[in-house]
Structure formats: structure tokens, C-alpha cells
Amino acid sequence: MTPLVSICCLTYNHGVYIRDAIEGFLIQKTTFPFEILIHDDASIDNTAQIIREYELQYPHLIFPIYQKENQYSKGRRLTLRFNVTRARGKYIALCEGDDYWTDPYKLQKQVDFLETNPEYGLCYTSAKVFVQKTSTFSKTVIGSPVESFEELLLKPGIVTLTTVFRRAYCEGYSSEVLPYSTNWKMGDYPLWLYIATKSKMKFMEDITATYRMLEESASRSKSFDHNLDFANSAFEIRNFFADKFHVSDTIRKQYSLDYFCDVLSLAFLVNRTELINQAKLFFEVNKLNVFRSFLTLFKIFRNNRFAHRVLNHFMNRYKLSWYK
């Protein structure tokens, strides 16, 4: 029987977590068939062994790919190239191997909505955050309503592990955006932006999944260069879509401000003069109030007096002021 939904899961060295991810797929209670497509990117731990255990138990449900060489390090677009291209479902659901679903009716609720509302191309929900270092749940619930393409440029509130979207959009995304020719560090955000130009997006407040916050991941790291590359990539993606879909200068300035706040947050921590001056130039050219631009830093340092003193030291050194 042809599946209505293809669950696409990427995994690499997720031996500690992959059982939670797969069990989250298996608990789904639906009136329609689905398939589970897992791509293991040449893990060097026991991830592949665990996946094989489940593959033997559910041979008509779980369809893995076991890479012998790591494909991510070669710049390959893993979800599109290895999972979406073999998906048979009308809809795609994403969840990486270190995250997991908690609501057994997640797929049913989202597919029911998309089936009865063809003007919507994507449906997503809220998720809890589990901090792996402390083995505790954060008070923060992630996922927020985004009602337009422009709003998504400013506020990427879509939580990837909660999404279900129409597979039909993937072909247009590949041919119009040409993601294989880019060096973007994320594959999900530009896809959401593309879908947002073609359809409406539905946010459900239901908490259906758990995002596992790791100390090291594709989007988080202790490495300054890794985090800077990620911020630069997000900025490049925004500029690409702003150019392609003729976004106003007002929107451009808003997301540029967010980007330079991120850069400043990173640059101050490691004293990177060239980045601080780059951000300063942006403020001056756009005649922005620097105080507003540092609200992010104040949120980070609001309970740390020493950090405030360090911040003021750099403000004085680089001749920045809180007010124009």
C-alpha cells in the first residue's frame, strides 16, 4: 500500500538517542499508511546497529540507507538527495535522529488539516526543549506562528522536527532555488522560505515533540567559527530570497539588524575587531540607534555584573555609544 506520509530521518552518531526517535515514529496512530526513511551518514558509533535491529523488526515500514562515507562532509544535501528522492508519500515529515516525537496523534492531526485545506503547504507545531547537559527540560517551548514569507524572513519560528509538508514543493524548490549549488549550512530554513512563497503555513499550538539541545550540533557549537559560519549562512539565505522575491528595504534592514546583533554577540566574546567594526559601520550607514541593537546582549548579560563591565569596556574601546 502506498504511504500517505514519508517520515525522513537523518542520523549521525546518534546511538544514545536514535531509539527515542524511532519509537516516536512507531507510536503514531493513523488511519493511513506511512513509511520511515532513515539515512545514517556513516556513523562511527552503534547508531547503524540499532537501526538494523528495528529494520529487522519492521521490514515493511523502516527503510534505511547506511553510508560507508560521510556525505555531509562532502557538502551533500542529505534530506533532499537521499530521503526525499525516494519518498513515496504525498507528505513529508522530518525528524532528525537526536530529536523525538511525543504525541501519538501528531501525524494524524497535521495530515487531517492539510488534506482539508489545500491552500496550506506546511503544518508545524510547538516542541519542548530537553537540555542534554543537565538532563532537564527547559521552561521554553519553541515554535511560534508565522503567517507570511516576509515574517519568516524576520522570525524563523518553524521547528523542523514538528513539520509536515507537501512533497510536491520539493521539486520546485530544487529547480528554482538550486540548493545543490550553494554552500548553505542549513537545508530546512530555505525550504520553508520557498514554501512560504507558494502557500500558507499552519501553526498548531499542540506540543508534539521534543528538541534535544546538545552542546555540539549543526546549529549549536562551542566553536566561534562554527557559530559565525552558521550566522553568515542564515544571512546569505535571507539575502538570496530577498533578491529573488523583491523584498522591501525595510524588511532587509530589519533582518540585517538581527544578523549584526548576532555577529556582535559573537565578536565581543572573542574580541574580533574586524567584526565589531563591520557591525559598527552597518549601524552608522543605516543611522540606527546602537542601544536598540544591543538589546540582545543585555538579555544575555542581564544578571552578570562582570559581563556588563566587560561589555562597557569594549563599547569605550571601539567608540560605540548607547545613544546617538
Model description:
The protein has 13 helices and nine strands. It folds into two domains: 5-213, Spore Coat Polysaccharide Biosynthesis Protein SpsA, Chain A, CATH 3.90.550.10; 248-317, no CATH class. α6 packs across α7 (188-198), α8 (224-244) runs antiparallel to α9 (249-270) and α9 packs antiparallel against α10. Helix content is 44%, strand content 19%. The chain is of the alpha/beta class. The longest helix has 22 residues, at 249-270. The model has no long low-confidence stretch (mean pLDDT 85). The chain has helices spanning 18-26, 47-57, 78-83, 106-116, 149-154, 168-177, 188-198, 224-244, 249-270, 273-285, 290-293, 295-301, 305-317; strands spanning 5-11, 34-40, 62-66, 91-94, 100-101, 120-131, 136-142, 164-166, 200-213. Strands 1, 2, 3, 4, 5, 6, 7, 8 and 9 form a nine-stranded mixed beta sheet that branches. It is globular, with a radius of gyration of 21 Å. The chain starts with a strand and ends in a 7-residue tail after the last helix.
CATH topology label of the largest domain: Spore Coat Polysaccharide Biosynthesis Protein SpsA, Chain A
Mean pLDDT comes to: 85
CATH architecture of the largest domain: Alpha-Beta Complex
The assigned structural class equals alpha/beta
